[in-house]
Design a protein that fits this description.
Distance between the termini: 50 Å
Number of strands: 6
Helix content: 25-40%
Strand content: 15-25%
Number of domains: 2
Shape: globular
Mean pLDDT: 79
Order of helices and strands: EEEHEHHEHHE
Oligomer: single chain
Largest sheet: 4 strands, mixed
Length: 176
């Protein structure tokens, strides 16, 4: 068994996406930038090798490119959930299954929807941490842009929330 990987050109500050697809065609990873080295840890976790297989990655490449180009909102890709466990799996599956494209849900609301945490103020923080480690953050499969921190004025990705690419904010030159 193996993970097939490739890099996809992307506009703006992202420049590229790195994706990995399992033997059954399910998407196992989408990462920001050209970083195939990050797939080694995932492959080790799954007990698999990392290979180049253009045939296996073709559907993912096509659909991700269409999404980046604004021509796709819904993906026909399965998610390889094998690297996710516990509350991480519960939260990401809830986001995937219950929050459609164009809808936004707060971290606290997602925590409540998923039932993955006891009711407390730290539940939203737990979801925020999970979103930061999401292995498939862009794909409509599990789009991070669908979940936001409370009070966030927008997102930094192309999603229904902002509709355009945004570079991270930087402090003005000379600021401390």
């Amino acid at each position: 068994m193996s993970l097939a990987w490739t890099t996809i050109p992307a506009p703006g500050p992202i420049r590229a996406l790195t994706c990995a697809v399992a033997d059954d065609g399910a998407l196992a990873h989408v990462g920001w930038g050209p970083h195939p080295d990050l797939l080694v840890a995932l492959a080790r976790t799954l007990g698999e090798d990392v290979v180049v297989d253009e045939g296996r990655t073709r559907d993912a490449v096509t659909q991700l490119a269409e999404y980046l180009d604004g021509r796709r909102r819904v993906f026909d890709l399965q998610v390889d959930w094998r690297s996710m466990h516990g509350s991480r799996l519960t939260v990401l599956r809830t986001l995937h299954e219950r929050v459609p494209y164009g809808h936004v849900v707060g971290y606290g609301e997602l925590a409540e929807m998923s039932g993955a945490f006891d009711a407390s103020w730290t539940a939203a923080r737990g979801v925020g941490s999970i979103m930061g480690s999401n292995p498939v953050p862009l794909v409509g499969v599990v789009r991070v842009g669908r979940s936001v921190r409370s009070g966030t004025p927008g997102c930094r990705c192309r999603c229904a929330g902002c509709g355009r690419w945004r570079a991270p904010r930087r402090a003005p030159t000379g600021s401390s």
